[in-house]
Amino acid sequence: MGGSYVEQARENHVKKKVEEALRSKMKAKALNECDELVSKYAECATGRTFSVVWSCRKQAKELNTCLHQFTNDSVLEEMKREYTLQEEGKVSASTI
Q: Which residues form a coiled coil (predicted)?
């Protein structure tokens, strides 16, 4: 019974690590895809402190809209599905 709990805990830990890695990959892709808007927002924000909130509202909204296209639950679920298929392919290839 104890071994089963430890195995399950390890498996959950691995799943969390994989999900963290996939989230990181998803965010990096989003920033890359929205690079032009990131630059526009950064340019607007340069030299500002509190005023960035209202002065760069348009750029921030455009950036967030773009980023959301690449960082939502459906994108993450698709990445998880692709990862699972890759892992299953590795397992079946190693058993041949």
A: none
* Prediction pTM value: 0.73
H and E: helices and strands count for the chain:
5, 0
The CA distance from 28 to 75, in Å, is 13
18-75: pLDDT as tens digits: 999 999 999 999 999 999 999 999 999 999 999 999 999 999 999 999 999 999 999 9
Task: Find the Cα–Cα–Cα–Cα dihedral 9, 13, 15, 16, rounded to 10°.
Answer: 130
Report the Cα 42 to chain-centroid distance in Å: 21
Q: Give the distance, in angstroms, between the CA of residue 41 and the centroid of all CA atoms in the same chain.
A: 20
